[in-house]
Specification:
Elements lengths: L21 H22 L3 E6 L3 H17 L5 E6 L13 E6 L2 H7 L13 E6 L6 H14 L4 E7 L5 E6 L2 E2 L2 E2 L4 E6 L21 E7 L15 H13 L1 E5 L11 H9 L5 E3 L12 E3 L4 E10 L7 H6 L4 H20 L6 H12 L11 H31 L9 H6 L3 E5 H8 L5 H5 L2 E5 L5 H11 L9 E6 H10 L6 E3 L5 E5 L2 E3 L5 H13 L2 H9 L2 H5 L15 H30 L1
Parallel strand pairs: 1-2, 1-3, 3-4, 4-5, 10-11, 10-12, 15-16, 15-17
Antiparallel strand pairs: 5-6, 6-9, 7-8, 12-20, 13-20, 14-17, 14-18, 14-19
Amino acid sequence: MNISSLLQFESQHYQGAQTQSMIINRFVANSLRVFIEDFYQRIAPSFMLIISCRRPSPMNFYRNIMQLLYESVDIMILQLVYHNHSQPQRVAGLRLHNLLLVDSLQAFLDIEIHTYRTQTDASRYYFIFLQQRDALIPNDMQGVFDYCWRHQIINCNVMTQSSHGEVIMHTYFPYEEGQCGIVIFRQINKFLGKTWQHSVYFPPKLHNLHQCPLYVLLRPVSPFLSISGRVPGLEDRLLQELARRMNFIIRLVEQHNESVVWTEQQVLQLLQQERAHLAIGYMRKRVEHTTNLTAVFPHYSSRLVSCLLLNTFNMTSFDILRFPFQTITWLCVLSTFLSVSCLMLYSRQRTDRATVLLSILAVAYGQPIGASTMRLSQQVMYVNWLGFTLLIRAMYSALFYHMLRQHVHQRLPRTLEELVQGSYTAVMNRITAQDVREVSSLQGLLTNTRTIIITTELERDVLEDMELRSQQYEPQYQRIFGVLSHQTLLHVTELAHKPGAYYVLPEHVLDQQLAIFLQKDSHLLQQFDELIMSIQAVGLINYWAGQLGSERYFSSTFMYGDRRLRQPDLWAIYVIAVVLYALATLVFLWELFSARWRRSN
């Protein structure tokens, strides 16, 4: 960067320059150099240096300091900005790590650092060198810290140089015992000539809030958050853990109508209006919220899944009877029966053929027959047929029992594409529909299927709507599925005591990142991020989630009360019995008609 027009060190004659000795100037420049090398150059590739002065004397002093810095530092990547209060101009730049050289409170306010909001939610650091008369330093310093706290800049330090040449660093602590939200500054460091007294330049201020209250907006969405407290949700426990570790009191923002649950948009609007410090309750992290709000590091990944009612995929009574064997097996059994029948009929007289067929059927059903009048070859044939049918009956009974025990269903879809091609009806709430609509690969799920979007944002209402529509026995509702979070599905299944009642597609829809929302550029962000990652690292989040719903209980097929046989399951047996009785009746009528016809002739 060419800064010769700004810093004309060699040729410019300073009017009203600082009269303090060069030794003190070098002492001050050395303190800045050590800070830059120890902090900014270690955590950032570059930083912003802003000079704002309302008097010529401090301006010349800062020019001298900059010259000494350039002479003593080998590499220093920075963006240098000179702020002229008479002709203010906005200068773009990544203002995360800032070094401000000012000569008064008003010169500091001229910069308007709160208007330079970064695109990211990273922590901002401001190291301010205030060159002011000793008598005015306390008042100006208080004004600087009041400004930083008002705009939630927690990493804000002020360095001053006294008339005796002492270089001291101050910062403010907004949370002290018995003093919540009150800006009180105190000295934290002092330059000793070669190093600073303490190596920590920005001390932590939020590890202990000393029982100060934080106002919280709650959005009770079971199983993630529950106000009742009888069954604490996942985010209930998370909030209590944060309060315990940071030592703050939770103050809830009261809702005028407690019977109506706040929508997600209403909660975020209240937070944007600075009605609370944070908002929690199944809040999904989205790009459109980054402009006006700040989201903490996501604490849980909620998986959106597609679920179907298994009862709508029950087999028909005829499917149940023919299920144990494949079609080829049934054809082999039938061909074997016909072969045995032909052999037996060939060896018997015509008058005995009906008896032979009935005997073969009786053996196939495991019924005894009279074999005293049979030849030895016929008896051997019957024994072979009896052994074959015994094995077939045993395998059929075992597979039939297994099917009833495991509650086998019709073929279930496994992918979202199969749902689209199968003309299924989708049920979801409007927040889920909004998330699905924003994913280009999932837009076909809304455009190519019949979609029902319920008005509420509670996901348990999706399951209730599915069950109500499936009971209407309308063709379009017999193929219906719901889109909701997997954790909600597990929780509702356990509360309703319906294990094995739902089927979840192996292909999930998408992952939603749940996060705590804060005010824009909130001072709580860095501490909350660190604690959330610490809680996740020890597995507490997954442990809490596992207590709200069990995957093993959800998949169990032995405890569901609707597994008993019902009349529709027996219709195939009734039909077969009616057909056989009708056939027997026809045979009886034919025999009766034949006997009377013979008598008449």
